[in-house]
């Protein structure tokens, strides 16, 4: 029987608990032992029974709908250094773990991919320095790593949806609906900042779902003059047609085509100074990450948990590490290393102001 560990990493996302529950229970059903690594990579680096705990069937009861992650998460600096990864490898081996499933965003899965890449040299170093025995070395020469994508940002390539994105989207829409009522009452404009890091998915989809007047996202940048003129034209037209409220959604990563960040204050100043609108700013913040998981995320996290365990059990030492995604409503296995690379190349293209390339790379993830 295999000893399979699961860990959550990076920003929490609704549905992570459902994913852990599914992985733990599927592992048990398949005759394996299930472990949870608490506090993400930090727990992996620290190790020991406080951070690496065996999980039973009942330990995850009621986790399906719960928001956040009950096994904790952290953004860990030490794991970025080889010394941290060496401790992590030693801790996994000491706990007898031979497969690791990481539920996290692109940063966390990049970390998982580096760990996968380093594993052979890490275990060799542990053996050469006498920190593990020959027997442990033989048993742990290979580590199966699998990624499930948990992030509200929906910014990972090779999957149509990340676990948590639809819950966050629902929460944003709910918040915008609340704001709508007060905006309408006072005939005000609201500039609302939406999370998503460098990805505009949440802002774009929330904009469509709430019929926002204007949306600023990093993937479609314009010059300052262009977006200001376009926004004013559209908002004025809506007002002329009798609309009493104005909603502008700004992705937190919104930029101009010169890569200058666009803040909610920049946007509000334009609405005040050019259109004379009574304008307020709302930053939704971490409320977007809270609350229970919507049905879609519970379903996605559960099915992907089953697939992750099956993938780990089917992996041979030569199989590339899988990442579990969803494409056209089917749960799929994709190469973790390719997904990470593709995600990074979108960010690189944006930083090189090659927006066309960034858009076509984003399209790749949807059509491939
Ligand atoms: O990646 C999820 C996310 O919520 C992003 O949308 C946001 O930029 C970031 O995490 C906020 O990070 P923190 O919770 O560390 O402030």
UniProtKB/TrEMBL annotation:
Domain named Phosphofructokinase: residues: 3-312
Record's subcellular location: Cytoplasm
Binding annotation for ATP: 11, 75-76, 105-108
Keyword set includes NADP: no
For binding substrate, which residues are annotated in this chain's numbering?
151-153, 188, 195-197, 252, 280, 286-289
Chain positions recorded as Mg(2+) binding sites: 106
One example of a Gene Ontology biological process annotation: intracellular chemical homeostasis
| Record key words, sorted | Allosteric enzyme, ATP-binding, Cytoplasm, Glycolysis, Kinase, Magnesium, Metal-binding, Nucleotide-binding, Transferase
Q: Where is this region: N-terminal catalytic PFK domain 1?
A: 1-368
Q: Where is the active site?
A: 153 (proton acceptor)
**Entry GO terms, CC:** 6-phosphofructokinase complex; mitochondrion
The molecular function GO annotations come to: 6-phosphofructokinase activity; AMP binding; ATP binding; fructose-6-phosphate binding; identical protein binding; metal ion binding; monosaccharide binding
Self-association and partners: Homotetramer. Heterooctamer of 4 alpha and 4 beta chains.
Entry function: Catalyzes the phosphorylation of D-fructose 6-phosphate to fructose 1,6-bisphosphate by ATP, the first committing step of glycolysis.
Record family assignment? Belongs to the phosphofructokinase type A (PFKA) family. ATP-dependent PFK group I subfamily. Eukaryotic two domain clade 'E' sub-subfamily. Belongs to the phosphofructokinase type A (PFKA) family. ATP-dependent PFK group I subfamily. Eukaryotic two domain clade "E" sub-subfamily.
What's the protein here called? Answer: ATP-dependent 6-phosphofructokinase
Tell me the organism. Answer: Saccharomycopsis crataegensis
